[in-house]
What does this fold into?
Amino acid sequence: MSIVVTGASGHLGRLVVAELLARGTAAGEIAAVVRDAGKAADLAAQGVELRIADYDQPPTLKDAFRAGDRVLLISGSEVGRRIPQHNAVVEAAAGAGVALLAYTGALGGPDADFVLADEHKATEQLVLASGLSYVFLRHGWYTEVYTQNLPTVLEHGAVVAAAGDGRIASAARADYAAAAAVVLAGEGHEGRAYELSGDTAWSLAEYAALVGELTGREIAYRNVSAEDYRAVLLGAGLPAAFADVLVDVDRAIGLGLLAGTSGNLARLIGRPTTPLRETVAAALKG
Ligand SMILES: NC(=O)c1ccc[n+]([C@@H]2O[C@H](COP(=O)([O-])OP(=O)(O)OC[C@H]3O[C@@H](n4cnc5c(N)ncnc54)[C@H](OP(=O)(O)O)[C@@H]3O)[C@@H](O)[C@H]2O)c1
It folds into this structure.
């Protein structure tokens, strides 16, 4: 049996593999499912087995899993395409007889009231219907969702959003990766649904002030209407459908739907989640 990480060439997947290794899983017991072996050559060099498969091509998934494997399905990155993609993975995992399927869903699970969660809710239903032994890792926001836009913030001297005073209990990707490693390598998590978020919730005004403090610059929080925010996103080149999803995310943040600080993530990983300040400072250093 192996611990199998899909999306292993991505940001989160790489961190999960690194956490598994750091926590004592041997490289030879880890398999990385990737669609491009070249992107995972460094993992192969460490002794991690590569299994080549594409969520969009179900036949390629046939050899991605083996009986008894513990699998982490990292949700796909193409919003709108993920239900058939995840269905293909779930079917392949069930067909192979894996021992456990962990899935990275969205905070709130079936009750999440934002459009971005719809594919995650549908995926959880697919997993439940498959009869597989499962763990749901319901992720809150990644702090890096914000820090990846720091160049734009610095260019305009402003954080632009439509989230009002809503607070965000984000955690670093590495925190969510540690949780996945704990579940994959540990025991007793079957059938659990973990609502995972950062220890501290912050507002975008506080985020702007923090970026200002760390850069020595004046950074404003410009809270705009949903309509104006949509126009900003379209102006930045986002497709209309995705802009609508992001506007809806800010509505959800404004309502406090991503502010919950349950402490579950810290308890699972046995340490506090990474503070916003630390992730922002690291991102500013490049
Ligand atoms: N909660 C949050 O704040 C938040 C933020 C961002 C993302 N997410 C979700 O978390 C997931 C992981 O995040 P991330 O930052 O690691 O994203 P990422 O860096 O874009 O990684 C996505 C991974 O999925 C793989 N992938 C995409 N489409 C695939 C396909 N058709 N077949 C096989 N593999 C495929 C990618 O492979 P390639 O390397 O070949 O492209 C990559 O390894 C995202 O996909 C998204 O669903 C959540």
About this structure: The domain at 3-140+172-197+260-269 is CATH 3.40.50.720 (Rossmann fold). The longest helix spans residues 82-96. Residues 7, 9-13, 35-36, 39, 54-56, 74-77, 85, 104, 139, 141-142, 145 surround NAP (CB under 6 Å).
